[in-house]
Design brief:
With about 120 residues, the protein is α+β, with helices and mostly antiparallel strands. The chain has 2 helices and 6 strands; from the N terminus they run αββββββα. It has one domain. The strands form 2 sheets. Strands 1-2-3 form a 3-stranded antiparallel beta sheet, covered by helices on one side. A 3-stranded antiparallel beta sheet has the order 4-5-6, with no helix packed on it. Bound molecules: zinc ion (ZN).
Length: about 120
């Protein structure tokens, strides 16, 4: 008798868990949007899910080489500071520091669904 009473609750709990799994497995389409041109920079970033997979945070925004896509390395010599491609040895005579601005641009493109994945 008790089993009949609690069965609907167990069924409900199982259905809710399955719905949650489907939600987590169905990743949002913007997760493949990971590169963008911004002013004279080519940028790449990653996404990190929150613990409950409700939201994906934009992380590790970094400038990459226009020619080969390799992540750039900071170099300095005397008063000169810039970025350097360890792969094709191209140089940029400035540092990239527009992380907050770029994050806002990325978030805006995602919100307005104007990204090319
Ligand atoms: Zn390169």
């Amino acid at each position: 008798m008790a089993a009949i009473v609690i069965l609907p609750f167990i069924l409900y709990a199982v259905i809710m868990v399955v719905i949650r799994w489907i939600d987590v497995l169905r990743k949002p389409p913007y997760l493949s949007f990971t590169t963008m041109e911004y002013k004279n920079w080519k940028l790449r970033w990653d996404y990190k899910p929150t613990k409950d997979y409700e939201y994906y945070e934009i992380v590790k925004i970094r400038p990459v080489c226009h020619k080969c896509g390799c992540e750039l390395t900071k170099i300095s010599a005397g008063s000169y500071e810039g970025l350097y491609c360890p792969s094709c040895e191209d140089r940029w005579y400035e540092l990239f520091d527009k992380y907050n601005a770029v994050r806002k641009v990325i978030e805006n493109k995602i919100e307005n669904r104007i990204f090319q994945a």
